[in-house]
From TrEMBL:
It is an enzyme of class 3 (hydrolase). One of its GO terms (molecular function) is dihydropyrimidinase activity. SUPFAM superfamilies: Composite domain of metallo-dependent hydrolases, Metallo-dependent hydrolases. It comes from Quercus rubra. This is dihydropyrimidinase. The keyword Methyltransferase does not apply.
Length: 533
């Protein structure tokens, strides 16, 4: 009894410390405009019934003035003048666009890379996404010591704190029978329908052409989409050595060591090998005219190639890495590099004319302390920039406000096409009865400004710092919950769901006929008669 009494002050102290810590964390979220939990900051969770009234509903195929009624996370009705009871939360969208939430096809949250880990995990990164109108993303699982199963399990744990829906791509970093069988398990049991092959990062993630061919063949048989990071890793390695020999150690050395012709070469090689196997190909983060032109040529010939530019490549030029301040210069270091002025406009034009199909971010955010790992050698600067929160605003500003694309095209390149490519349409990427209630209310007459002080990423820098533009996401609804309204986030860790993506999406339609046509064209083997002499 005496022993128990003596421990009580210690338990009380620990309880007080825990309570103070929880309050402090909650206040930090409130100060940042984030509600952490079901009812912190004095705000309760939102109604499961929502009516969005009077807005212009935009899908990739049409726009119409209509109301949208949501119940239990699903869109129930889209039509004019819907009547509801008093238990429904009503949002007035008059004069505004009601659109599917964005889907970011290319992110790296909680990514262990180059001796460190990205600052945005599956909570903070997704919270930032929601503030910017993105309601789903597809992240890349990196195998653990080559094991796909171990990699998947590791990312399952990382994603437990998710506050919005997400899917997974899977990287392939080695090849053997175990990997081949694991690919089957990933597709048939784990909901993965895409595999990424790195042609860059020699000595780390890079694979050779033999592995690439084996991977392409396996992807084809499984109905999974092959994806490539297209830079010639061997040549980049030589370029890096060249820069060091020339005494160039700063961030500009990164861009100089991997010029656009190396991106073009690897893109062309991947396209030709995919054509040889006759399997669809998805080229991630298309950053240059060189790569874009290879994609354009292949598509003109009828090859099934998808090109994904990222918002940094569409918006920025490559001058940032020449800034005399290391912190400023290093924040722009990514691979492939942001290219010189002119590439951005060419990529925009390719996006507006259908040569490129959808916009990602390659969100891979490191803070200035992490970037300083390469202060004496650009090869040690962790590669990556932000974009998950900024994508929807910047794409609207540079593509719609400029008159390059329509509002329906905007929905297509930020949401619908991604859902179609990865076989989750119309559950995602649409405002239709039966679709998930992932919705944004967008005010084309409002404006935005991007700063590191106001963004929701944990990084202390932003590559779009000071950028202003027209058009703003005023409300984000994810899974039927209002998570962004009045510039405040109301997000719940663990509320996000893993979205399984089935194989054999539309890109595989008719592939078997192409194979049959190829076989019939061979006119072989030729029957030859042996000489009787």
């Amino acid at each position: 009894m005496e022993s128990s009494f003596k421990t009580q002050p210690l338990l009380l102290l620990l309880l007080l410390l825990f309570t103070f810590s929880s309050i402090t964390e909650s206040n930090q979220f409130c100060d940042a405009g984030i509600e952490y939990g079901e009812s912190s900051c004095g705000v309760s969770s939102s109604s499961s019934k929502i009516l969005i009234k009077g807005g212009t509903v935009v899908n990739a195929h049409r726009e119409e003035v209509a109301d949208v009624y949501v119940e239990d996370g699903i869109i129930v009705a889209v039509k004019p003048n819907i009547k509801v009871g008093d238990d429904v939360t009503v949002l007035d969208a008059t004069g505004k666009f009601v659109m599917p939430g964005g889907i970011d096809p290319h992110t790296h949250l909680s990514f262990e890379f180059m001796g460190t880990e990205t600052v945005d995990d599956f909570f903070y990164g997704q919270a930032a996404a929601l503030a910017g109108g993105t309601t789903m993303h597809i992240d890349f699982v990196i195998p653990v010591s080559g094991s796909l199963t171990a990699g998947f399990e590791a990312y399952e744990k990382k994603a437990k704190k998710s506050c919005m829906d997400y899917g997974f791509h899977m990287a392939i970093t080695k090849w053997d029978e175990v990997v081949s069988k694991e690919m089957e398990i990933m597709v048939k049991e784990k909901g993965i329908n895409s595999f990424k092959f790195f042609l860059a990062y020699k000595g780390a993630l890079m694979i050779n052409d033999e592995l690439l061919l084996e991977g392409f063949k396996k992807c084809k048989s499984l109905g999974a989409l092959a994806m490539v990071h297209a830079e010639n890793g061997d040549a980049v390695y030589e370029g890096q050595k060249r820069m060091i020999e020339l005494g160039i150690f700063g961030p500009e050395g990164h861009a100089l060591s991997r010029p656009s012709l190396l991106e073009g070469e690897a893109t062309a090689r991947a396209i030709r090998l995919a054509g040889f196997v006759n399997t669809p190909l998805y080229v991630v983060h298309v950053m240059s005219i060189d790569a874009m032109e290879e994609i354009a040529t292949a598509r003109r010939k009828g090859q099934r190639v998808i090109g994904e530019p990222v918002v940094s490549g569409l918006t920025l030029d490559g001058s940032g890495v020449w800034d005399p301040d290391f912190v400023t210069a290093a924040k722009f270091v990514m691979s492939p590099p942001i290219r010189a002025s002119g590439h951005d406009k060419a990529l925009q034009a390719a996006l507006s004319t259908g040569i490129l199909q959808l916009v990602g971010t390659d969100h891979c955010s490191f803070n200035s302390t992490q970037k300083a790992l390469g202060i004496d050698d650009f090869r040690n600067i962790p590669n990556g920039v932000n974009g998950i929160e900024e994508r929807m605003h910047l794409v609207w500003d540079i593509m719609v406000e400029s008159g390059q694309i329509s509002v329906t095209d905007y929905v297509r390149i930020t949401s619908t096409e991604c859902a179609r490519i990865f076989n989750i349409y119309p559950r995602k990427g649409a405002i239709l009865p039966g679709s998930d209630a992932d919705i944004i209310i967008f005010n084309p007459n409002s404006s935005f400004e991007i700063t590191a002080k106001s963004h929701h990423s944990r990084s202390d820098t932003n590559v779009f710092e000071g950028r202003r533009g027209k058009g703003k996401v005023e409300v984000t609804i994810a899974g039927g919950r209002i998570v962004w309204e009045n510039d405040e986030l109301k997000v719940v860790p663990g509320s996000g769901k893993y979205v399984e993506m089935p194989p054999f999406a539309y890109l595989f339609n008719g592939i078997d006929k192409g194979d049959a046509e190829y076989l019939s064209s061979l006119r072989a083997p030729v029957k030859r008669f042996k000489s009787t002499d």
